[in-house]
Write a structure and sequence with these properties.
The protein is globular and about 30 Å long. 40% of the residues lie in helices and 15% in strands. With 72 residues, the protein is of the alpha+beta class.
Amino acid sequence: MTKAELAERLDHLDPGSTTQVEAQTLAEMFGAGALTQEIIEAVESFALDHRCTFSYPVSARHPPMFEKDDIF
């Protein structure tokens, strides 16, 4: 998946819906080998640009998740 494909997926989510992306895939989309704090901040900004919230649990037991804001 590319950043453009992720952007399209996020743009088409219904309000309140979520989508998950594997951490490694997400890191590669943003030009890194792993999700560092700097990359996570870039992903959070990207998510906001697409009216979503990004969450990545510290435990990393679950893949990173985007949730579409329910208010437009």
